[in-house]
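Below is a concrete protein record.
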Amino acid sequence: MRFAIVSLLLLALSGCGVFAPSYRDQSVTIASNANFDPARYAGRWYEVARYPNSFQAGCAGAIAEYQPRPGGDIAIRNTCLDETGVPTDDVSGRATIVGPGRLSVRLSGVPVAAPYWVLWVDEGYRTAVIGQPDGRAGWILNREPVIPADRLAAAREVLAFNGYDLSRLQASGAMAAR
């Protein structure tokens, strides 16, 4: 419950520019994935790395689940994991596709939608890089809890190309245990 309440409140505030630092050089152009396929993106993803953010405080990792809905929206469920990988809380919402690789995410009870850009997905839709244009959040997601070194390196390159500061990226979940 704490994760849901805190995440809802702080996501709303971060959307207004309060509390959240930017991890991205704003002078660098950010680009979303023009070939993004929401149907292939659907399913379970494990967070393997993220930029620190207040709405995930207390989460050692996370699981994100995306499910297409009639009308084109995507149902979202994010589950917070403790340091042993046990779920502690979750929050749900929906995403609306607003452009190629660009989604607008609204979590339950939050009146402010947040931009969620898919910056890159590997050809097999096994690894994804997500960012926000303002650089206040970013994630590396993988279909399995442990990501192969080559895809992690590629994901990090995508973040750097889009102006993100790699020194601030933190391993999470199974990656943090390495």
In short: Residues 48 and 175 are 6 Å apart (CA to CA). Residues 1-18 have pLDDT under 50 and may be disordered. The beta strands are 43-50, 61-68, 74-81, 87-99, 102-107, 114-121, 127-131, 138-142, 170-171.
